[in-house]
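Section 5.1 Outputs to date
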Amino acid sequence: MYQEISLRLNDGSEQKFPFLATGTTAYRFKQVFHQDLMILLNKMENSEDDQTDMTVGDKLAFIMNAQAEKRDMNQLNEDAFLEWADQFDGAELFLHMQEFVTLYLGSRRTSSKSKKEVAQRSGK
């Protein structure tokens, strides 16, 4: 799934950035950050305390932007992430976290429908 999102830069200007969620997004996330993306997203959704890693959206955006720009994914690391994130104004990435997560999760949905209804268990 592909989307362009306007983000505010440090100098106050806005720029559109491309983001692409694919079947390898979670793999690339783990490759760069050594964390399981789905576990982190589940913790974010189910957490009621302040122990949630709120950088998940920033890191996800970094991976999806790199995929959209066709960067060499083997060259990505945490330093490249910090350099990329440093171009944005304050909490700009945090403010767009829901868009990034929705874009990623939207790529995991399917538009196909099953041919048969789910079988109901009979009491026989």
